[in-house]
Amino acid sequence: MRIALHTPLKPLSSEVPSGDLAMARLMVRALGDLGHKTVPATSFVSWAAVPDDARDTALRAGASAEIARLLAPQAPHFDLWLTYHNYHKAPDLIGPAVAAGRRIPYAIVEASRAAKRATGPWATRFTLADGALAAADAVAAMHEGDREGLAAVVDAGRLHALPPFIDAVPFAAVPRLDADGGPVRLIAVGMMRPGDKVASYRVLANALARLEDRPWHLTIVGDGPARDEVRALFPPDRVRFAGAVPPVALPALYGDADIKVWPAINEAYGLVLLEAQAAGLPVVAGDRDGVAAIVRPGETGLLAAEGDAAGFAAALATLIDDGSLRHRMGVAARRHVLARHDLAAGRAGLTALLAGATTVHRERTARTEQLP
User: Fold this and answer.
1) Could you tell me the residue range of the domain that residue 315 belongs to?
2) Which SUPFAM superfamilies does the record cross-reference, listed alphabetically (predicted)?
3) 231 and 336 both lie in a single domain
4) Which end of the chain is more exposed for a tag (fewer CB within 10 A), N or C?
5) For the chain, what is the domain count?
6) 191 and 115 in one domain?
């Protein structure tokens, strides 16, 4: 199958490190494993940080031009349209029209719907995102919280579950290196940019300040425009800043750690939490719907209320103090990811999604053709 991929949140070609793009690229890889050819059909981006009526008017005009290009007789042929992300900040303005014009199935992965945005400054974009949901033949939610929000407007026959997945093999294969009686080795992996990422680093720094009497050392992997702000949060004698590293170097860094730490402020789920678990690390993280969907509280890690530095410190202290618990959770974490969040699980979920989209599209087409 030749699949048109659209990523309205950010272009697939972006070189800025991002969990969103990593997930999109993993989808392309999994679909390729299944024998499909997935092609970025457009670089059109609809994402906006804040609502702006003037910008949105120009955006819709740009979307109309892009739709016309993709429906032109000389445009490439596709068998299915697949959009990754659709919500009020990044509604799919292209897929519904192109799929309808080309008479091909239309599927969305990682859609979300916050009903509170139906009124207020985001209302127009919310309505556009809802329009895409109505047009889609299949919609995949990546965790239960998103599924519940989508169920209000997407019927059960079109609503699928597609938990996030990674290529777990490089992480699961990394040898575990013992600390040899030294401080417990913590690792945090995250971009250093203003907003939610810096907020997560602030919670982490606050939590660690409450554990000055515990034996720990932290390695931080990541870089970005807020690096100076992040560096100033942590004691230099107990923290190593590794900077940005290529993905191929991450497994070894996890192999030289004991606990993965990340407060996960406003994280959708966090692929780095899957990577760390695949490498055999227990996780201490903030408790959000998406995080709780990939970290099993009490089994593969411990979760604290989002933004609660004291609760985060308490959870982390539990694992710092108990080496046998760290080991048990680490073993369970690796087993959990390999069983439920590896590429094989992703391939299975995508296979079901494409089959569902094709079936619903065929049924909808048949009903339309029977109309007088």
Assistant:
1) 169-340
2) UDP-Glycosyltransferase/glycogen phosphorylase (SSF53756)
3) yes
4) C
5) 2
6) no
Q: What are the angstrom distances between the C-alpha of 103 and each of 129, 327, 365?
A: 20, 53, 8
At 174, list the tokens.
Answer: 């990394």
Take residue 87 and report the two structure tokens written for it. Answer: 């919500």
Which CATH number belongs to the domain containing residue 296 in this structure? 3.40.50.2000
